[in-house]
Design brief:
It contains seven helices and twelve strands. The chain is α+β, with helices and mostly antiparallel strands and 259 residues long. Helix 3 runs parallel beside helix 5.
């Protein structure tokens, strides 16, 4: 089974690229972030016509997440618990039946947090605290659990073309990294780092020729419970997608599993 994540940066603007990716790569499950539309604005009929089930957690103009899957979900959860006042659409989770049981796929769009001297950075850290509590509870199920999406987090210097240029940014500073380590220390495996120790980027800014210079960063991740990590076979960063017509600034990252 192939499970992918992609910050599409506006599903309406990238609908052509979305259809191309589904047609060419045929992931079993594709998790999207930053769909930037309410649920009613998602091209459901078009995607269903390509053989996918669609579950969305949308928001007007900002954020928004979706799960596209070849098989129907047994259950869908929308929103991160822990703060009833938080209306930002940043988490959607699906449970899917597989041979021998079920897998749980949790798609997140973690807050960016910039600028750090605004309310956005404390919101990011608080959101991560809530996420840690959520994941800790999920791991008690002792089932394959895949936490994936745009984490807006650079885990280590190798994950940035120019780490010094990023140091101090909300994506790469001590407070953010401390929360990320706490999340990983619950028992999650970074899927890409389980398969390679080489640099691989998933985001290139639209500015300053970042794509041409390969001045990228890795902020899109698949984090796996022990039960999911045991079934991991390979991870692919679909870098070619960044060169397509009207691309997102992120590329899909796909894990292949023996589910």
């Amino acid at each position: 089974m192939r499970i992918a994540t992609w910050n599409i940066n506006g599903v309406r603007a990238r609908e052509g690229a979305l259809k191309q990716f589904l047609k060419e790569y045929q992931p079993d499950i594709l998790c999207l972030q930053e769909i930037k539309t309410v649920d009613e604005g998602f091209p459901v009929a078009e995607v269903e016509g390509m053989g996918y089930n669609v579950a969305t957690h949308g928001q007007k103009s900002w954020n928004g997440v979706a799960i596209l899957s070849k098989m129907p979900a047994d259950e869908i959860t929308r929103g991160l618990p822990g703060d009833d006042s938080d209306e930002q659409a940043r988490l959607i989770e699906g449970v899917f039946s597989v041979e021998g049981g079920a897998i749980r796929v949790c798609n997140i769009y973690l807050p960016n947090g910039n600028p750090v001297d605004s309310e956005k950075f404390p919101y990011k850290l608080a959101w991560m605290e809530r996420l840690i509590a959520f994941v800790e509870e999920r791991l008690t199920y002792e089932e394959p659990f895949i936490l994936l999406g745009d984490f807006n987090l650079i885990p280590a210097p190798i994950d940035a073309h120019d780490p010094q240029a990023w140091w101090g940014d909300a994506l790469f500073r001590p407070e953010s990294l401390e929360k990320f380590r706490a999340l990983a220390n619950l028992g999650l495996t970074d899927a890409l780092r389980a398969t390679t120790d080489e640099a691989a980027y998933t985001f290139w800014d639209f500015q300053a020729g970042a794509w041409r210079r390969n001045a990228g960063i890795r902020i899109d991740h698949l984090m796996l419970s022990p039960q999911a990590a045991d079934r991991l076979e390979n991870v692919t960063v679909h870098k070619d997608v960044r060169g397509w017509d009207k691309p997102s600034d992120h590329v899909p990252v796909e894990g292949e599993f023996t589910f």
